[in-house]
Design goal:
The chain has 555 residues and is of the alpha/beta class. The chain has three domains: 10-257, 3-Layer(aba) Sandwich (Rossmann fold); 269-309 and 316-339 and 468-554, Ribosomal Protein L25, Chain P, CATH 2.40.240; 343-458, Ribosomal Protein L25, Chain P. It has helices at residues 10-20, 42-57, 76-88, 103-115, 126-131, 150-161, 211-221, 237-247, 269-277, 292-298, 302-312, 323-337, 548-554, and strands spanning 29-32, 61-66, 96-98, 119-122, 171-174, 189-193, 207-209, 226-230, 253-257, 339-341, 343-344, 347-352, 361-366, 377-382, 385-389, 409-412, 417-425, 431-438, 456-457, 460-461, 466-473, 497-505, 518-520, 524-528, 537-543. Strand 24 (524-528) and strand 25 (537-543) form a beta hairpin. The longest helix has 16 residues, at 42-57. It is elongated, with a radius of gyration of 31 Å. The chain binds adenosine-5'-triphosphate and magnesium ion. Adenosine-5'-triphosphate binds next to helix 2 and strand 8.
Length: 555
């Protein structure tokens, strides 16, 4: 389906109506507003693709706004990683903005509310405020401070700002309606006192605006036309509108869509941080994490993630997306783009007894047989001693085993047909060596032997192989919805990482770079790890060749 044929999602419908009616003079300005308290995850990618996608589609723009109103959990490390990830996904923001840059303006807005008797300073503790709020069916009761005069409120709020009070001693609340069925309108908190160092404003401020007060007002300051957030914020929308109306500022509007939930993973930064802090994973970019940086390190491409976000679409109802869809997207792409290479993960030695010792045949293998011209080729050295996979040999092979066993023949990929003549075992009965004879006129591409064999196996020349560590990743959790469990950390999949310390790879793979996708023939898709060194090569498995979990479910 091309973009033109695709049905509009409900947000696009709203925007097209607004454009038709000439609202905001046809201007579309969206924003992506991360809180810099963690690394971006695949859920954020959905929001990024949506917000930036709308900006692009409607000739508009998208701001990147760091929602940095909570000094304690935020850090510039997160700011940098977020910027890097958005660019990596292929998007550019119009402006890089920080809610903390608006602290002065937000303070003035709060003063304006006080002046209009629409906000007051409350000395009650958070427990007192909560218990006086009532329940959805019972109205709340005013605290003794609700009737303070405007002058007193102005003086106290100024003193809060000047650092006269300790954390929690006072708050600023909107004066709305203590009986409103929407609890968010029962005099919500606008400011709290927090004597904490902020990563951008330092110690300038000791009062910080609450999310509800900062968010809509920041949208308005930037003149955002369509402020898109997730469904949890539906109950906040009335307050969003109330504040904009009472302050009489630019009428930004909030629209809500369903957040991305994905099977076998957890998505909230708070939980991801726990995994990092408890050392259950090797940092935010551990390739098993659902973060953008982890997917990058694992070998996912920006296009595969954008494609995934496009396929899942934008809904108004919560749902759960199968992680297999994301795996499908990268597998489908890598099948077309990955360069083919040979690697042996569980080696046994194959000796070709009729091939001269010391002789080397320089075979040529196309990089990518999926495209015309093969994207060039590489040299694959062949000699009389090769590594092959242990499970490509069986002593007592069943009938349909089209690999090696006594008397059986296979083709060695890019090379010759060989027939097994003998094998060796150690004292424990493990196979240690397989002996074969090769058919000299059966070379791939110039085969005149007339022989037909059913199986082709991969191999690496012993004398030319490089060593590498290979990391096989699987799903981090073994429960579809780990968050539904009592403790989500109990459902970590103990087999989510298998390390092969010494695999043998064809020499050309020493030139690999992180992010470049390779298909290790018959094994899966791999990329070089970002922490790999020339002394110690490390490859990450991006995804298997086939969906192995689909089989699990059918069993
Ligand atoms: P988390 O709970 O993971 O910390 P958050 O919503 O607190 O997420 P923010 O940094 O505040 O994280 O989010 C920035 C933007 O990304 C918000 O507009 C938010 O709605 C959106 N977002 C966050 N998680 C998801 C998700 N799972 N699916 C879609 N959008 C999301
Ligand atoms: Mg948040």
């Amino acid at each position: 389906m091309t973009n033109e044929e695709k049905p509009l999602n409900f947000i696009e419908e709203i925007i097209e109506k607004d454009l038709e009616s000439g609202k905001h003079n046809g201007r579309v300005l969206t924003r992506f507003p991360p809180e810099p308290n963690g690394y971006l995850h695949i859920g954020h990618a959905k929001s990024i693709c949506l917000n930036f996608g709308l900006g692009q589609k409607y000739n508009g723009k998208t701001n990147l706004r760091f929602d940095d109103t909570n000094p304690v959990t935020e850090d510039t490390e997160y700011v940098d990683s977020i910027k890097y990830d958005i660019n990596w996904l292929g998007f550019e923001w119009a402006e890089e903005l920080y809610t903390s840059d608006y602290f002065g303006q937000l303070y003035d807005f709060a003063v304006k509310l006080i002046e209009n008797d629409l906000a007051y300073v409350d000395d009650s503790s958070s427990e007192e405020i909560a218990s006086a709020k009532g329940t959805p069916t019972e109205p709340g009761t005013p605290t003794p401070y609700r009737s303070r005069s405007i002058e007193e409120n102005l003086k106290l709020f100024q003193e809060m700002k000047d650092g006269k009070y300790a954390d929690g001693e006072k708050v600023l609340r909107a004066k709305i309606d203590l009986a409103n069925p929407n609890m968010h309108l029962r005099d919500p908190l606008l400011y709290r006192i927090k004597h904490a160092h902020h990563h951008r404003t330092g110690n300038t401020w000791c009062i910080y605006p609450m999310y509800d007060f900062a968010h809509g007002q920041s949208d308005s300051i930037e003149e955002i036309t369509h402020s898109i957030c997730t469904l949890e914020f539906i109950p906040h929308r009335n307050l969003y509108d109330w504040l904009i109306e009472k302050l009489d500022i630019f009428p930004s509007k909030q629209y809500e869509f369903a957040r991305l939930n994905m099977t076998y993973t957890v998505m909230s930064k708070r939980r991801l941080l726990q995994l990092v802090n408890d050392k259950l994973v090797d940092g935010w970019d551990d390739p098993r994490m659902p973060t953008i940086s982890a997917f990058r390190r694992r070998g996912y491409t920006p296009a595969s993630i954008r494609n995934f976000c496009d396929r899942i679409g934008v809904q108004k109802r919560e749902n759960m997306i199968d992680i297999s869809l994301l795996e499908f997207c990268i597998r489908e792409e890598l099948n077309k783009t990955a360069w083919r290479r040979m690697a042996v993960l569980d080696p046994i030695k194959l000796v070709i007894t009729n091939y001269p010792e010391g002789q080397v045949d320089e075979l040529i293998g196309e990089n990518n047989p999926e495209v015309e011209g093969g994207e060039g080729s590489r040299v694959i050295p062949f000699s009389n001693e090769l590594w092959i996979e242990r499970d490509d040999f069986m002593e007592d092979a069943p009938k349909k085993f089209f690999r090696l066993g006594p008397g059986l023949s296979v083709r060695l990929k890019h090379a010759y047909i060989v027939t097994c003549t003998d094998f060796k075992k150690d004292e424990q009965g493990n196979i240690t060596e397989v002996h074969c004879e090769y058919i000299p006129n059966s070379k791939s591409g110039e085969d005149t032997s007339g022989l037909k064999v059913k199986g082709t196996i991969h191999w690496v020349s012993v004398a030319h192989a490089k060593e590498a560590e290979v990391r096989l990743y699987d799903r981090l959790f073994n429960k579809e919805n780990p968050v539904a469990e009592e403790n989500f950390k109990d459902s970590i999949n103990p087999d989510s990482l298998k390390v092969i310390e010494k695999a043998f790879i064809e020499p050309d793979l020493a030139k690999a770079t992180p992010g470049k996708g390779y298909q290790f023939i018959r094994l899966g898709y791999f990329t070089l790890d970002t922490k790999s060194t020339t002394d110690k090569l490390v490859f990450n498995r991006t995804v298997t060749l086939k969906d192995s979990w689909a089989k699990e479910v059918k069993k």
